[in-house]
Amino acid sequence: MTIAAQGSRLEAIPRPASVLQRNVNLLRELAVTQFKLKYTGSALGYVWSLVKPAMLFGIMYAVFSVLLRAGSSTPDFTVQLLFAIVIWTFFTESTVVAVNSVVASANLIRKAYFPRWIIVVASILTALMTFLINAALIIVITVPLGSMHLGLRSLAAPLLLVELLMLIIGLSLLLSSLFVYYRDVGHIWEICTLVLFYGSAIVYPFVLFQQHHVAVIAGLNPLAQIVEDLRHALVTPGAPWTMTLLGGLYAVPVLLSVGVFVLGFYVFHRLTPRFAENL
């Protein structure tokens, strides 16, 4: 074989950097396209992303704050609830859409080869765009009104969002891969989200249960830990860090987020080779 032929073969082998760039470009294009298609043909368009959490917030506020007086002793409870609802909407929208993402892309999977995880992560990035816009709107509106108190502790917010993303990606990869083989997974996850909503300190301040063992049990839920710590970091300095409440057990929800992330990638990687024959 001539040197020229060997050189041409080496050029044909994709470099790791080029493969990474190609995957990143594909991930970006899929996420942006899904974000645009999400509101195609809708009269209100993006406004629906504001209406849904706003309606849920209104109902929860009327029931828990007005009727049950759950947040009467908690400063800035309204903003705490609103911010938690936005986080919850991001969590549920990401995971519920991701569950069906692989099956919905069956034709694409059969026709082209690319890392299948891109489909799942692209659906999460689409929901992330909506979440970042909604969160930015809350901050822009509430900071001038003095209802959101930013400070040095707010520097923890990006780390908490990374933990939230790890939890969402891990769950999404796990659920979407299992859904290919067991369609009951979608129904099971809908039930799980109902339980998680009331078990993740979304509609009540954690401080209400600070003196009870139930607070420790609820605090072991990664989503509850993330929501409560984000409240402390961005909204109310007086709200305790979950580390204060859990002590040495604080590592449990963090490790659970990491564990779900690793488990999701492992299961997805093991099941991916048989996706096409089961779609």
Overall number of strands: 0
Distance between the termini: 43 Å
Q: Helix proportion of residues, in percent? A: over 70%
Task: Classify the secondary structure makeup into a structural class.
Answer: mainly alpha
Order of helices and strands: HHHHHHHHHHHHHH
Rg is: 22 Å
Please indicate the percent range of residues in DSSP E strands (runs of 2 or more): under 5%
Please, how many helices? 14
Largest sheet: none
Give the overall form: globular
Q: How many structurally independent domains?
A: 1
Overall pLDDT score:
80
Uncertain segments are: 1-12
Explain how this protein is built.
The chain is mainly alpha-helical and 279 residues long. The chain has one domain. The protein contains 14 helices and no strands. The protein has helices at 3-12, 16-38, 47-67, 77-99, 101-104, 106-111, 117-145, 157-181, 184-199, 213-219, 222-234, 242-246, 251-271, 275-278. Helix 8 packs antiparallel against helix 11. The longest helix has 29 residues, at 117-145. The chain is globular and about 55 Å long.
